[in-house]
Design brief:
Elements lengths: L2 E10 L5 E11 L1 E6 L6 H8 L7 E6 L2 E2 L4 H6 L1 E4 L11 H11 L5 H14 L15 H13 L5 E5 L7 H14 L4 E6 L2 H7 L2 E6 L2 E6 L1 H8 L3 E6 L4 H7 L1 E8 L2 E7 L9 E2 L4 H9 L13
Parallel strand pairs: 3-8, 3-9, 6-7, 7-8
Antiparallel strand pairs: 1-2, 1-4, 4-5, 9-10, 11-13, 11-14, 12-13
Bound molecules: adenosine-5'-triphosphate.
The site of adenosine-5'-triphosphate has 12 residues, from helix 1.
Family: Belongs to the ABC transporter superfamily.
Pfam families: ABC_tran (PF00005)
Protein name: ABC transporter ATP-binding protein
Length: about 300
C-alpha cells in the first residue's frame, strides 16, 4: 500500500495569492478525485505533490519520505498527465515513448522495449504506434498521455482534467483504463467534471480558495445530503422568481420544461418532490454555501 500524507500545506505566491491554506489530506491506493472551480488551488497542490514547487509551510510525505527534503524520491515514482502536452512533435508514438522512457531513466533497451509495447497494448494504441502523435484524435492523445505517465511503473499518478473534450465513447474507454490502473497505485484526478469523480473515485475532496472545503467518499457525501434535495418542474419564465424565493442549486431543461433542484430541510411548497442527492448536488450546494451534511472527514 502506498501512502501520500499532506500535512498543513500552505503556499502564498509572490503576488500575495494564498493558493494553499493549511491543506491536510491522506491518500492511499485508489482513485482520489480533486474537484474545485478555476483558481481553487488544485494545480498548486499537484505541483507541490510532484515536487515541482516548494510549500511555504507544511510537508508532503510519500511512503515515509519527506519529498521536500528528497524531491527525487517522488519524481522517481511519479507519472504525470498534464492538461495539455502543448505541441506534439511529428514523431511516432513508439519513438516518443522511447525518448520519454530514457528521460525517466529506463536505460536497459530490452526492458524499455517490453514496457513500451505492453503500455501501447494496454492503452489500445498498438496498431497506431507508428503514426505521429500529432495526428492522433483527442482520445488517442489522452491515452498516449496515460501511456507516457505509466512509464517506469509509477506509484503515484496525477491526471489533470483528463476527459475534457473527449466524446462519450473515448471518455468511457479512458475511464476503464484509469480505474484498472487505480487499484494498485495512488491516482489523483483533478477535474471540474463532477460525474468523473462520482464514477471513478473512492475518495474525494473539494477545494475552494486554497482550502479543503469537503472531504469523504462520494457515496457518503451524497447520502449525507439525502432528505434535503427537492425537485420541481417549472415554467422557464418563473425561474428567476424561484431563484429569489428558494435555495436553487441547479436548473436544467428536461423534456422542454425547466427542472429545478432546491436545497431545503422540508418541502419548500406544494409541487416539490424529494429526490436522491447526486454528487452534483453535493458540489453545487457546497459552492452556493448551503449547510450540507458534514458528518464525514471534513477538514473545515
Ligand atoms: N505562479 C503563480 N504566481 C502567482 N499566482 C499564481 C501562480 N500560480 C497560480 N496562481 C494563483 O493561485 C491561485 C490558485 O491557482 P491554481 O492554478 O492552483 O488553481 P486551479 O484550481 O488549478 O485552477 P485551474 O482549474 O484554473 O487550473 C489562483 O488565484 C492563481 O491565479
Amino acid at each position: 500500500m502506498n501512502t501520500l500524507e499532506i500535512n498543513h500545506l500552505s503556499k502564498t505566491y509572490s503576488n500575495g495569492v494564498k493558493a494553499l491554506q493549511q491543506i491536510n489530506l491522506t491518500l492511499e491506493n485508489g482513485m482520489f478525485g480533486l474537484l474545485g472551480p478555476n483558481g481553487a488551488g488544485k494545480s498548486s497542490l499537484m505541483r507541490t505533490i510532484a515536487a515541482l514547487q516548494l510549500p511555504d509551510k507544511g510537508n508532503v510525505i510519500f511512503n515515509g519520505t519527506d519529498i521536500g527534503e528528497q524531491p527525487q524520491f517522488i519524481r522517481k515514482h511519479l507519472g504525470y498527465l498534464p492538461q495539455e502536452f502543448g505541441v506534439y512533435p511529428k514523431v511516432s508514438a513508439v519513438e516518443l515513448l522511447n525518448h520519454m522512457a530514457i528521460l525517466k531513466g529506463i536505460f536497459n533497451q530490452k526492458i524499455r522495449k517490453e514496457q513500451i509495447e505492453s503500455l501501447l497494448v494496454q492503452t489500445n494504441l498498438y496498431q497506431h504506434r507508428k503514426k505521429s502523435v500529432s495526428s492522433y484524435s483527442g482520445g488517442m492523445k489522452q491515452r498516449f498521455g496515460i501511456a507516457q505517465a505509466l512509464l517506469g511503473n509509477p506509484k503515484v499518478i496525477i491526471v489533470d482534467e483528463p476527459t475534457a473534450g473527449l466524446d462519450p465513447e473515448e471518455r468511457n474507454r479512458f475511464h476503464n483504463l484509469l480505474s484498472e490502473i487505480g487499484e494498485q497505485v495512488i491516482v489523483v484526478l483533478s477535474t471540474h467534471i463532477v460525474e468523473d469523480v462520482r464514477d471513478l473515485c473512492t475518495k474525494m475532496a473539494v477545494m475552494g480558495g486554497g482550502k479543503i472545503l469537503l472531504e469523504g467518499s462520494p457515496k457518503e457525501l451524497m447520502t449525507n445530503l439525502n432528505g434535503h434535495i427537492w425537485k420541481k418542474e417549472i415554467k422557464k419564465e418563473t425561474l428567476e422568481a424561484h431563484q429569489k424565493s428558494f435555495n436553487v442549486i441547479s436548473s436544467r431543461l428536461f423534456a422542454g420544461n425547466t427542472q429545478i433542484h432546491v436545497y431545503a430541510d422540508r418541502q419548500p411548497e406544494e409541487g416539490f418532490e424529494l429526490v436522491d442527492a447526486g454528487l452534483e448536488e453535493v458540489y453545487f450546494s457546497l459552492m452556493r454555501g448551503f449547510p450540507i451534511g458534514r458528518k464525514e472527514g471534513v477538514a473545515c
